[in-house]
Amino acid sequence: MEKILIVGCQNTMDNVCIACSRCMVAFNRREGAFSRYKDQDAELIGILNCGGCPGVSVVTRLAQMACWNEKNGEKATKIHIAACILDHCPEKETIIEKIKAKTAIEVIEGAHEYKPEGLFA
Ligand code: SF4
C-alpha cells in the first residue's frame, strides 16, 4: 500500500488554491502525477505546506507530521511536490533537495495537472 504525502506552497495553499481540492480530486481519480497509482492500492495521508518563505521549516514540519502519525503506524512512502511549488517557488530546488536528503522517501515532482483555461472561459 502506497501512502502519499503532498507538499505544497503555503502562500498558494492559503490564498489561491483554496482547500487543495484539485490535488485531492486528481488523487481520487488517479490523474496527473497520480496516474502512476492507477492499478495500485494508495492512500493520501496528508497535504503539508512548506511553512512559508523561504521554506526553511519544511523539514521540521515533515518531522512533526511523522511524529503525529507514529502511533498510528502511518508513514509516507511517496512524497509528491505539487505544482504550486514546481511552477512558482524560487526556493524549489533547495526545498526538494532538503526533503530528499532528510526523509529518504522517494520524491515525485508533480501532483494535479489541471490548469484553468481562462478566468471567464
Ligand atoms: S518558500 Fe516557496 S513554496 Fe514556500 S511559501 Fe514561499 S514561494 Fe511558496
Detailed description of the structure:
The protein is built from five helices and four strands; from the N terminus they run E-H-H-E-H-E-H-H-E. It has 121 residues and is of the alpha/beta class. The protein has one domain (2-109): Rossmann fold (3-Layer(aba) Sandwich). The protein has a four-stranded parallel beta sheet, with helices on both faces. The N and C termini lie far apart (39 Å). The model has no long low-confidence stretch (mean pLDDT 95). The structure holds iron/sulfur cluster (SF4). Iron/sulfur cluster is lined by residues 9-11, 50, 52-55, 85, 89, 91.
What key phrases describe this protein's structure?
globular; single chain; Rossmann fold; 4 strands; binds iron/sulfur cluster; 121 residues; alpha/beta; 4-stranded parallel beta sheet
